[in-house]
């Protein structure tokens, strides 16, 4: 791919590193993008395996997600930059162990500038296995999903307080789009506290497990999850689920979910603001997982009290953003981007 074309991509933001990796024996292909970080401060970002429509789409995903990770780390108060690795899924992986082993060796080539863990398509067991071949994998001694869910729960409380005057989930209704790792954890946390919960997922086996474990949830088609009349819509699937078309369908007061890059563009946040729908910026509310693996990296991973205290800071940061949004009459995304940008500048 031509270097000038990469620089012209909308999501290229003077990234520190953009690299393509390949292994002929396992047919491993993908990109690692490091947005911010330096010789003293590593860049953190999980690895995902996805069936991209093209290599260009994969590259753009890594660029955009790495910038999001920088913002996430900045507002979580972590001394690290942001990065992202994407592996292009091209058919069935013949030997998963050898495939991931080859990838872990690619990570080693960056010498610790890139610290990674599990995202879509990568399990915690995969991470534990890859850690045997690379010490730059995190999420072994802590479960980041648990803390992502906890931070999201705290954030939902803050949103309900802003809109309804109370943090309580009692009598409130929710629509969760995607009940995999993060969505499933959020469901576990809110199930016994809320009134109605609607869920959707493209994976029928996942839905079957959810229905057996949580019999009172209401399953709806993926295309109809946006239409549900609820207090909070919780996108916990993949990126770009909120666009100018889907937000017209929303019938909620709050949006707070665990998916990364939920908005197709920043302009979507402005429309939500004008419609008086409170959007909780994704990289603020889903930072619990990053906080936990950073703590593991800094040897605090087994101190659950320390991690929980740091994750609780998510609610405080969100409250600050909501207050500034109200006072300055700007969208929550505009405020959070501004605050994150100020902190990221210090990493240059």
Automatic annotation (TrEMBL):
A GO term for molecular function: nucleotide binding
Top-rank taxon, per record: Bacteria
Domain (Glutamate/phenylalanine/leucine/valine/L-tryptophan dehydrogenase C-terminal): residue spans on this chain: 142-348
Similarity section: Belongs to the Glu/Leu/Phe/Val dehydrogenases family.
Residues at which NAD(+) binds: 178-183
Protein's recorded name: Glu/Leu/Phe/Val dehydrogenase dimerization region
PANTHER family listed in its UniProt record: LEUCINE DEHYDROGENASE (PTHR42722), VALINE DEHYDROGENASE (PTHR42722:SF1)
